[in-house]
Amino acid sequence: MQSGQKKKGLYASIYDTTEEMDEAVQKLCRKLALSHESATLELKKIFWEGTENWDNLLTERAKISGELILSSTLKMPLRKSKGNNHVIS
Question: What does the pLDDT read at residue 8?
Fold first, then answer.
């Protein structure tokens, strides 16, 4: 299942420990610090392309999620999946 999620871009890597993750982050930071500045700027433009309206998009999607979670259609399946341990009104 994890490889499918990785293919969909949900994450880049998984580490067994915080220390391993910290080491990987430091390695990436060193690599980026040594990168060509203008190339890095152009890559950032590409990576962030299409996110100009991100704040509004996140708010809209949060509203949709909230409406769905509060709908009576989803309350019963949630109760069943959580063993009714959580209060859903």
Answer: 62
